[in-house]
Input
Amino acid sequence: MEPKDIEQLLKSAKFNHLSEETLISHYDGELDEIGLALADAHLRLCPICERRLTFLKEEQEAIENYVVTEKDRALIEQARKKVEPLPRAPGGITNLIQQVTAYFNDLLTAWIIPFSQPAIRGSEGEVIWEYESEDGLLKAWAVSEKDFSLTVHFESTELAWEGIRIRFRLGPFSEEVTLEHPEGSNVVVAKIKIPRRKLAKKMDDISIEIL
Amino acid sequence: MKAEKQKTSRCSVEGDLELVRRYQSKDREAGETLVKGHFGFIRVWAYRFSDSFSWVAWDDLVQLSTIGFWKAAKEFEVLVYRFFHPWATRLMWLEIRKSPEVTVDKRIPRGNNKLVKTTVEELMRELHRMPTLEEISERTKLTPKQVDKALIALARSMVSLEDEDGPMEIEDRRQIEKLNEIENQRQEIYQLLREAINRLTPGQRKVIEGYYFSEPTTDRAIAEELGMEKSAVTRRRGRAEETLRKIISGDRRWNPRILNSF
Output
């Protein structure tokens, strides 16, 4: 190594963009005296790395302070399903319950997304929300009635779900319902009528429980 | 339902890696913890992308970024890379970029980013201070707004595994490896330099730091600051540089070829 090389190395050091590791260490206050002097020398010169540090600070603040809402949880779940669809559970009663729970969680997510917007009120008989599980086994839809109440219908071709009880809650409204197998039909069904006065303004305050 | 406060007050490099590792071993809860803990991060990035894709609805950007984040958690190579955030940012960016709502012709021209980066690097060396938007604008013949957008794009894409023009396709492994290798070598040399400076005497360190890394940058100014003769500062700096040269050239990590990339 020539003497001019060390000079070149020292002179160019402050023009070198900061690595991700150095930026994080700078933010965490973990750089030693020389590392800090070098990083600060570069940050005084470089508008790109200066912005990267600002971004890093913003990210850390967002990670520390952001409160995950119900709508976010629904969105996260919906995104996950697009990346990694739920595996079908094998047979057996325990798995059957797990499977139906997974479907209802899915359904809940699908509900929260459209209803997280300001309350939607459709005209009579209008289907204002629909859901179908990826494999088509569970369908649900909400219909606006003449008296402005809302009826939520559940339907499944999985006859083994007959007798499963569901607790549905929307704001202050709560009701339990059982999936039934109407005679001669090849589906199990349930429906819940939500009176107009019980329709919450914020329609995403909802839960579904398998009892 | 009540909003859920994040359980972890702060993510960490190791914490992220652990959650990713567990998620990739089919621990779905770990995946959810990772994503929920980073939802603020996802939104911050969606917001930054919104500047480039102002015609895309905010909810769609958040949704696409979230999908990208999940994919990042699924695909991150835990054994190869250490930092999950840059990887996640890249996958969020890719998810948005390939979505039908985002058309290629509306994006910031990539050439602007490259031009702005080169110009910033030139001006830093010429001016020995941070160039202003106007100065970069004048040199590049771009408007200050275009320069600003390019700087934002550069700041968000200047992470490992990305080239100057933006994120590379995931399939291009060889190019990724080559870029990573050069970057790693360069960082290693600077690490070596820092270690070597730390082995100098406190007086020598002060002179090197003052001359190369901070203002003032002349021996005379340093001499005034330290209450020394200028010639004494020059001699001390010379001895310090000679010591550094010996330490660095004697280290197995030293690679003379890397000087070409400075």
About this structure: Chain B touches chain A through 78 residues (CB under 8 Å).
